[in-house]
Amino acid sequence: MTYKEFLTQINEKKVSNVTLILGDQPYLQQNFRKALKSLIPEEELTMNFAAYDMETTPVSQALADAASAPFFGERRLVFIDNPYFFTGSTKRGIKVNHDLDELLAYLEHPQPDTILVFFAPYEKLDARKKISKQLKKVAEVVDISNLKEPQIRQIIQTELKQNGFTIEPSAEQLLLERTNADLTLIMNELPKLQLFRNDTKVIDDEAVTGLVTKTLDQNVFDLVSAVLARDTELAIRLYQDLLLSKVEPLQINAILVGQFRLLLQVHILNKHGYSQGTLASTLKVHPYRVKLSLQTVRHFDVLLLQRAYLGLIDVEKKLKSTAEDPEMLFEMFMVQYNNTSISA
């Protein structure tokens, strides 16, 4: 079920007794929480609503609440946050004993007057676990783990429309690029943009450029583009800008290595017939990053990408084992990379 279908279900008061919200999207999770709480009359919330964090509270405590009949009301609402026991994670350092047999028994026979909602901020659950299988068997699953670009655009436009605003297509594209299509980041930026353009009610390129700061990944993506274009002067300037922003050389290089690894993977798998959606799920990266990578790799030979990747791996080794100047190491990398005779 999509986020939009779930909100419609809430508005129609047809929510399942057990619901799983899968994915780390704080903005949508907050919207769901607010909408779900509206199902309980305000005067009943104190007695018929509770939230439990599984990293601090035993699941048995949440289940005792969920199994209880509503107190002078029609429904009881229980939120369970961070149910890591549905995943393969062991959560080191957390000393909470969870009775999963009790949870399994509840899922087999849910309390009909209770709406039990699991907020699982993970990409996926461990499908091998008996408890995960039972959850997926009985729960309505709302998967917000990997929102596609059209869905993100729709959310942006809906949010703006509710406040009487529109956004120009080029400005929307720029907003996606500067936030790496991170929905929560985008939603944090929209209030500033609306305030800035309160007179015209139209978000344009100037507003986005002036108010939305590029993420570190976006800055490094610009650096990757400069490297691929063999624009040594621009690449060095962008590298220096990152250093001036107090980003550690090892961190810059690690992100560069990750970007070129992704480009190589996308290039190779795309040649083997993988679609954009399949690439995103196989590589476990945001669909928007895959889209940008596909747009990039079609212009470059795989050996050229490999040359850059191996060169950056060599830089990483030297950063970790020598006292050589990081900026000089990057300049040497650019010189060696530019001297390659491989053509696209």
TrEMBL record:
UniProt cross-references to Gene3D superfamilies, sorted A to Z: 1.10.8.60, 1.20.272.10, P-loop containing nucleotide triphosphate hydrolases
Record carries keyword Transferase: yes
GO cellular component: a single term: DNA polymerase III complex
Example of a GO MF term: DNA binding
Keyword terms, alphabetized: DNA replication, DNA-directed DNA polymerase, Nucleotidyltransferase, Transferase
Enzyme Commission number(s): 2.7.7.7
Family matches, as InterPro entries: DNA_pol3_clamp-load_cplx_C, DNA_pol3_delta-like_C, DNA_pol3_delta_N, DNA_polIII_delta, P-loop_NTPase
Residues covered by the DNA polymerase III delta N-terminal domain: 21-144
UniProt GO BP: DNA-templated DNA replication
Record carries keyword Nucleotidyltransferase: yes
Ranges for domain DNA polymerase III delta subunit-like C-terminal: 217-337
Catalytic activity from the UniProt record: DNA(n) + a 2'-deoxyribonucleoside 5'-triphosphate = DNA(n+1) + diphosphate
UniProt superkingdom: Bacteria
Protein family: Belongs to the DNA polymerase HolA subunit family.
The protein's name in its UniProt record: DNA polymerase III subunit delta
Organism: Secundilactobacillus oryzae JCM 18671
